[in-house]
Every structure is written in structure tokens, then in C-alpha cells.
């Protein structure tokens, strides 16, 4: 049964961005309807139930590095935080050799020097790229014609340094750096206060899982959130915006699309979106990541003085982190699997893939890792309503289509993956949603939208 | 009224590739149904009627450089050819200076030397990249992590050389070289026998327009071609392949999808396509080109000793060609408009864009160009059933997903934009369609598919 509703604002997507936008709209005294394609809220945050009242995150999970808004929101919603890293030695595996170490840098003076040198160069480049308008950077076109991967190849001098920097920068995009525009990557890092800052972005996790934020936001919005209702068409050819979704058609004064860019491009728009916006959407790449986690009765590595943090660039599971719930029971190890060279790993049968991952974990923290009590995987690229994990821009796109990132199209505003602060993190989602809500509230009040407040300080 | 049909083979798309595939299937004694989304055949070939029995091509038009199959097909279908270039001096405009010249290279020894040097380097790189399996090239990953644009920037030493090579290489992809993977570009050039060979790819045009080939192929196929019938779903979960389109559902033994990759990705597949194929489709970029043509009572530039060929990198219309029909009446000048820096030109209002183009033509061939009898434009990126002109691969895609380019998915075969000979030309379309048909015929005969016959000789 198809329902017709009216609201001041229609929001597409009940991930963190859409819900943060809806919350801001309601807080300002306006009515809202949120259409969500899935049968759940939270978008790219999703908690797996481990039983016994424990969960582990299958999607976005870490916060830190001065991400103000998400700490504020968690406090407001009564979601507590706990340390994102565990104490103990780290493991570095390269060329078949396994070494433990304690500091922030891998246990080879040569490799460490190579990495530090490369990161200083990255810092110099980042400083040239304003996160709000990267296309205005000096030499923007030349930076946009390069890939992050080619830059890493050129800049690093040791094989291990290259492999590590490829891994570190790739994780942020959920992609191989070879796919990502260098200018885009610089603007991305710049939006978080610099690449070095990303090392602190795992300071905390959220007790009860990161999806709890979205669940609590949705609870407050009540029946304004319509689940299981993919949006098919957004029609602003009349005096209103009509958002047609599977279960409900919403007539609104403004719409906020807070779906990942790739998905927002498959909605039918009337009138058609401007060509710049359409071209932008075609130039978006998406992270192909399987998040794999092994669950053990306890985090046995801790008793052996290991933190669970391990780096093994080149291995099937190129790193590991201790992802146990607070209290440390059960124990969980996580990794991300990226396709490289023919996407071999993603195409392995699940059982073979599980075995390959557990074998890596055993290399990292010992043979007990081969016998987990459970094993969880989520392939974000196969999620119809996520279209990958983070999304990024391919070379040549930002200088050409960048100005269309945030530019509203008539009465339709864009509230996902287009922030200027901590892009493509949970913090960035909240900020992108709130920025779009700010534009809409200003428009409803008849005023010009205020400029985004940028609070990140760059050192 | 929805119709149900049965055939040995269902073909998706009645462009040159799909029709060439259907022709091969029928020639082997099998039945075929071709579903075409548009109300016409020909895909990215389309002829504009100029009146008086004359046409001018709004899409693909040139042949040459030893493209065997299209010459054979044209002869078989009774479509004649005529010279693709006209005699006379060429014009080069750079930094506000206009000069005429006669040879193949621009009239500056320094710039010519720069171009020759760059093209020799390109030749050396191309030779390393086998068109059939570019991912097996030495250093493939590193080449794939670069863009063609960054390579051009790095390799050229003069501003004019850089601008010209950017123009020449960009035209082939309908895109800015900054968008295109260097490895992909090398495999593309290699597929045509080398970049230098593209200079001969405009030797001929087809009398009566290039779309005539598709019209004649379709005439022979009769009611096997169903127009106005976009394919929504391809279901091979049962024992057959069921192709569901707007007007007809075809039950077939095999299907050939000969739609541009981006469009083939928006069909619903049951079961879902393998992840490698899905990722490949997401990594395809598409050429954003407006083909603009001005029609004059006669090609007045010829009387002044000009060929109509002009190069003006940096101008709104960065080049011109004489595109008059055979006989030279009326006279036609053509250019391609690419977006660069914010896609300004594509977003101009049509009247302003027309004026900008005519102003360039006046700079090239004289003030008479300002008063055309007619002006034609086609924005291929706005064509719903083309999704751009040529399609290409963005960095990092070929090494990772390349093997999925031609790999059939069950009983579904891919017959567009995935050839190994003259990729993304009319020749390439015919060959890609015929290769897919060859796979299908081999499968229907119970034999293993034969390896593609590669007939290009590389010097």
C-alpha cells in the first residue's frame, strides 16, 4: 500500500548523514520524512551480534583525532566510548620475516626513514590543497592528473616503505591508491587535518557498536523514518519536491539526498540533473573492501604481550587489529581484504578466503588464531544499498566537476560524502548531513545559506 | 502489448557491434532476436539529414589505417567510401598567433621535435603492452597507476607540444587524458597498431553516412530487430537465458550484450554478475563530447587554399575538420567540444556555445564562418542510450579487472568495447560483436570457443 505524505523536508537515506540532517531539521521546528532503502538504519555502520550482549562492528567503527561532532553526538545520545587500540607489541611481517616492535614506525631504520620522508612530502603537498576548494590549489590540474599510487611509487625508496604507504593510504579510501586521484587524496587528508592525523583516528570505539548512534537518532525521529523504501524518482518540475519511494511519496519543500554518490546517481531526477553533476557522479570510484573478523573465546594474544596490531603488506590479510568488545571477551581480530591483481581474494570461495585470513592471523599472533569460535565477513561492494565502502574521486574529476560536489540542484541538496571536514568518516557523515540541513534551513528561512563552519585546525 | 519470443541467441543493442553479432549468428544458421532501446539502429553512429539527399555524420564517421573488417562490410553492403580529408593548407593557432602549414607537423621546428620525441617514447611504451592482455605487460601495475595526462605532461617539453599531444590523445578517448589510465591508453593505441596509426584512421568516410551500415544490416535481419525496447533484466538462473525487455521477452540459449559497458551495468542480472565484472563496470569512464558542426552553402575555405583542418589547442573549439559530404555541397566544418576546467563549455547555453564555436571557426578559416546556413550539435554524454561517446578505463582498473573484459558470465557474452583490435572505433565494434558471436557459435556447436584472430600487424 503506497502512502502519500507531506513534510517540510524529505531526506533520502537513513545512514548517519541522513539521520544527522533529519535531526537538525526537526530541531529547527520543521517536519521531515526519511526514506531508507534498507530494512535497517545506519548505512555503512552495522553491528554484528556476538551473543552475550556483545557486538562487533562490521562497518565504520573508529573515532579520534579531534573529531568533535561525533564525540558530541555520542555524548548527547548516551553512547559511551572506549579505547580503540589495545596495549602491547606490534608485529611486522615482510618478505617472510616476522618481527615485533613497539613504536609507531616499523622496526627498520631504513624503512622508517623512508616513511617519515614520504610523509613529510605528503604534508607539504597537503598544505597546498584547501579541503573546501581543492580545485583552486596551485598546480591542481597536474595533481589531479596523477594517482595517489603513482605518487607513492615515486616517492618511496624502499620496497617495504612503498608497501606500507600503499597500505596506509589505501585503507583510507578502501581502494588501491592506483585508483585514486592524487589531488582528491590530498584534499581528503587535508579535510582531516593531514594524513598524519589519521594515525590518531582510531583512538576510540563506541560501546554497543557504532550503529547505536543511528538507531538512537532514528528512535527519536519515530515514524518519520520509513524503512524498506528505496527512492526511485525525485521530481522538482513543479512547485514542490516530490520524492517517490517504494512505500511512500513525500511532497516536500526541499530534499536532502544523503545516499552514497553512486547510488544517488541511479535515482531518476526530473528535470535531469545538470551535466556537471552527472559527470561528477560518473567519476566516483568506490572502495572494494571485505571486512573480515575472527572471533575467539578470548584475546589470547594479549597474554603473550601482543596488541593484536600487525602489518603484513603483501599478505592476503595485509594487517590485523584487535577488535574485541570492551572488557575483552570474546577476542576479535579484524582485517580488510582488498582486491589487487585480478581481485583474486574477493573471488575466492568463502571457505578458502577464511582459511587464507586465518593463516595470516596465525602468522601475526600465533597458531591459536587458526581455530576461531566464529568468523564474520562483510563484502561492502556487494551491498546493494551501499555500493562499496568509502567512495572517492578518480583522476581528472575534481578539477573538472569538483564545484558540483556541494552545489544544490534546485531544491535538492547533497548531504553525503561531500564534506570538507574528515571526509568519508563517521564524523564526515554527520558534518555533511548537518551542512546540507543548514543549507535547507537557510533556504526555508528565506536567507542565503551560511558558509560551512570549518573547525579543524591544521598544525 | 508484451510479446514472448524464442531464439537461439538474444542480442542486446542494435549498434554496429550488436548487428554484426546478429549477422554472424544468422549466417551460421541460427535464429536471433535483437533488442534495441532506441527507436533507431546504429548506436553511436547517427546521420543528420542535410536535405537535398545529403547527410552528415553526428557520430562515428572515419575509417582508415588498415581497418579491414569495416571496408569488407561496407563493400558487402554496397556502401561506398570517399576521402576523409580535403586538400589544402592547415591552420595552427596558438597563443593568439595564426599560421598556415602543409606537412603533418605543426609549423614550429621546436614543437615538431617535441612531438616526434614524445611519440617515439609512446611507441616504445606501446610495444610493451599486448592489446590482448595488457595486464601482462612488464610493469603493468605501475603503468596502470598513471594517467595518460600525467605522462603527456611529463614527456613533452614545449607548451604547444603538450597542448597538441593532450588534444590528439584526448580525442581518441573523448576525454581529457587526465581521466584515462596510461596502461589502458597504451593498450588502446596498441590495438590499432600504434598511436601513430591513428593519424591514418581518417582516410575515408562512408557515402550516405556511417549509420547506413547499421540500417542495411538491420534491413536484412527484418523483424528480428525490436526497436524501442530497453532490456531490463537478463535471467540465466534457469536452463535458458531470458532477456526481458520493454516490448519483448526472449528465451534464448545464449545472450550477447552489445551495449556500452556503462549501460550493460544497469541491467539487472540473475544471478548477480561476478564481483570482478561488477567492479570492472564501475571503473569505466565515458567520453564527454559534444560534436558540433556548422553547415555553409559551400566549403568556402577550399577556394582560399585551405583544407579546413585546423588546430587551436586552448580554444573553445580546439580543432576543425572539413566534414562536407562527397561532392562538397554543402560545406561543413566540425569540431568536438570537451569539458575542461569545470566543463564550462558544455554548460554554456546553446546560443552562447554556437557563438563560441563559430568564432573559433572564423579564426581558423575566415570571417565567413560566422554566418552558417545551419548549425548542428549532439551531446553524446546526454544520450541516455549511449552514455557518452567512447568509453575507457580509469587508472588501476585494467590490472585488477581487465581479465573480466571478455570473460563470458555463464551464457551471457560481452560484445562491446572489449575488442583487442581498433578498440572504440567502428572497426572495433564490428570485431567485438563478431568475436562474441564466435564464442556463442562455438558454444552452440558444443566446442570450446576459438581464440580471437588478431590480424593487425605492428610495425
Would you give an account of this structure?
2 copies of one chain form a homodimer. Chain A has 15 helices and 21 strands. The first copy, chain A, has 459 residues and is an alpha/beta fold. Among the domains of chain A are: 3-43 and 210-273 and 409-444, FAD/NAD(P)-binding domain (3-Layer(bba) Sandwich), CATH 3.50.50.60; 89-200, Polyamine Oxidase, Chain A, domain 2. In chain A, strands 1, 2, 9, 10, 11, 12, 13 and 21 form an 8-stranded mixed β-sheet that branches. In chain A, strands 7-6-16-17-18-15-19 form a 7-stranded mixed β-sheet. Chain A has a two-stranded antiparallel ribbon with strand order 3-4. The longest helix of chain A is centred in the N-terminal third of the chain and has 19 residues, at 109-127. The first copy, chain A, is globular and about 65 Å long. Chain A starts with a strand and ends in a 15-residue tail after the last helix. Residues 449-459 of chain A have low confidence and may be disordered. At the A-B interface, helix 4, helix 5, helix 10 and helix 14 of A face helix 4, helix 5, helix 10 and helix 14 of B.
Amino acid at each position: 500500500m503506497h502512502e502519500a505524505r507531506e513534510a517540510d523536508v524529505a531526506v533520502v537515506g537513513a545512514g548517519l548523514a541522513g539521520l544527522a540532517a533529519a535531526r537538525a531539521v526537526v530541531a529547527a521546528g520543521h517536519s521531515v520524512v526519511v526514506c531508507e532503502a534498507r530494512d535497517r538504519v545506519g548505512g555503512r555502520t552495522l553491528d554484528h551480534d556476538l551473543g552475550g550482549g556483545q557486538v562487533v562492528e562490521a562497518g565504520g567503527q573508529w573515532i579520534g583525532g579531534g573529531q568533535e561532532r561525533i564525540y558530541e553526538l555520542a555524548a548527547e545520545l548516551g553512547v559511551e566510548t572506549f579505547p580503540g587500540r589495545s596495549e602491547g607489541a606490534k608485529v611486522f611481517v615482510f618478505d617472510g620475516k616476522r618481527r615485533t616492535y613497539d613504536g609507531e614506525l616499523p622496526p627498520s631504520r631504513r624503512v622508517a626513514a623512508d616513511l617519515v620522508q614520504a610523509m613529510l612530502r605528503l604534508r607539504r603537498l597537503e598544505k597546498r590543497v584547501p579541503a573546501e576548494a581543492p580545485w583552486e590549489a596551485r598546480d591542481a590540474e597536474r595533481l589531479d592528473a596523477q594517482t595517489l599510487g603513482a605518487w607513492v611509487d615515486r616517492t618511496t625508496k624502499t620496497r617495504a616503505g612503498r608497501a606500507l604507504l600503499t597500505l596506509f593510504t589505501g585503507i583510507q579510501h578502501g581502494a588501491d591508491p592506483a585508483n585514486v586521484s592524487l589531488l582528491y587524496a590530498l584534499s581528503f587528508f587535508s579535510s582531516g587535518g593531514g594524513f598524519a592525523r589519521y594515525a590518531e583516528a582510531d583512538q576510540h570505539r563506541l560501546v554497543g557498536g557504532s550503529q547505536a548512534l543511528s538507531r538512537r537518532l532514528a528512535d527519536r525521529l519515530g515514524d518519520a523514518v520509513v524503512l524498506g523504501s528505496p527512492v526511485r524518482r525525485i521530481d522538482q518540475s513543479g512547485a514542490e519536491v516530490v520524492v517517490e519511494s517504494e512505500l511512500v511519496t513525500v511532497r516536500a519543500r526541499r530534499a536532502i539526498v544523503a545516499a552514497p554518490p553512486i547510488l544517488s546517481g541511479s535515482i531518476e531526477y526530473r528535470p535531469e540533473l545538470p551535466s556537471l553533476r552527472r559527470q561528477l557522479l560518473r567519476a566516483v570510484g568506490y572502495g572494494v573492501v571485505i571486512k573480515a573478523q575472527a572471533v575467539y573465546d578470548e584475546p589470547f594474544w594479549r597474554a603473550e604481550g601482543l596488541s593484536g596490531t600487525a602489518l603484513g603488506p603483501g599478505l592476503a590479510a595485509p594487517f590485523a587489529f584487535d577488535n574485541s568488545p570492551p572488557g575483552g571477551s570474546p577476542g576479535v581480530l579484524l582485517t580488510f581484504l582488498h582486491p589487487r591483481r585480478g581481485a583474486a581474494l574477493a573471488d575466492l570461495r568463502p571457505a578458502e578466503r577464511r582459511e587464507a585470513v586465518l593463516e595470516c592471523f596465525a602468522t601475526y599472533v600465533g597458531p591459536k588464531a587458526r581455530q576461531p569460535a566464529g568468523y564474520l565477513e562483510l563484502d561492502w561492494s556487494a551491498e546493494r544499498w551501499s555500493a562499496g565502502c568509502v567512495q572517492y574521486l578518480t583522476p581528472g574529476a575534481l578539477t573538472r566537476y569538483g564545484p558540483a560536489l556541494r552545489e544544490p540542484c534546485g531544491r535538492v541538496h547533497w548531504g553525503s560524502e561531500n564534506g570538507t571536514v574528515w571526509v568519508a568518516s563517521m564524523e564526515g557523515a554527520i558534518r555533511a548531513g548537518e551542512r546540507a540541513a543548514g543549507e535547507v534551513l537557510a533556504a526555508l528561512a528565506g536567507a542565503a545559506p551560511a558558509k560551512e563552519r570549518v573547525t579543524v585546525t591544521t598544525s
